[in-house]
UniProtKB/TrEMBL annotation:
It comes from Nocardia nova SH22a. This is Cytochrome P450. It comes from the Bacteria. PANTHER family: BIOTIN BIOSYNTHESIS CYTOCHROME P450, P450, PUTATIVE (EUROFUNG)-RELATED. Keywords: Heme, Iron, Metal-binding, Monooxygenase, Oxidoreductase. Belongs to the cytochrome P450 family. The keyword Iron applies. Its cofactor is heme.
Amino acid sequence: MADRVRREFADPPEHTAHRKLIAGAMSAPAIASWEPRIRQTAQRFVDRLAARPQVEFVTEFAAPYTMTVIADILGLAADMVPRMLYWTRGFNSMIGNPLTDEEVAELNDTAAEPLSRDELLMVLQLAMVGGSDTSSTGLSRMMEYLCDEPGEWDRLRAEPELVPAFIEELLRTESPLQGLFRVATRDVELGGRKIAKGETLWLSLAAANRDPEVFENADEKRLSRHNVVSRYLMFGGGPHLCPGAALTRLELRVVLEMLVAKLSAVERVSPPADRIKSFMFYGPGSLPVSFTA
């Protein structure tokens, strides 16, 4: 397990070889080809939500919606989604409880050159945690914000073309993925602090995304900001840029456009709940809400 995790965070050329395992599935043409099916999935979830007076948005909508999209892309049956959500109930717990041989066999296919066990586990881990947790946490935090700022819901209903800008600005200011670990490849001094080769660092993406030297009035949410995508680090950067960034944006855009088009208002039905208990993710642990058709 430790060796597999090391490979995930390696540098080229080792990292490049393993990134190719999912490059095809996450390419721009591949993501575009999935939009109709993602729309079908989103429509099912939105229709079910609209028929209910109240919903626990995190566990009954955001998490199963995003995981259903991932399951569909991986070619897994919809009835596996609850199990996949169980596996990803916290990144650390999944790392500490690897899949059994029987579970791996169930997920593998019969390709001429099937992935090795470690390669398959790596792809599944990245897809389920990176592809689902980040999206569902981001979606839940966006809905929480819209509950607290009902005028923004009205604005998106009146101007749905602002949904993409809303998504980018919320991802920037709220950073559902708070940071990442990295290892220093050489001795370096940064900000007056000496960092030795081999030291493990926690890089706060959330702090970088509110850097006042990069963003004017960085703590404010401004849908009129320009070139946000190229300047903030929600999805990392360089060779380690998240391969699923386009998929996350598509999942969020499709479902938010449907929600604001179909429903006239959203509000909390209980006081703010505890946050997610995770060093990596930031968002509500639960969010009971009611929608008005």
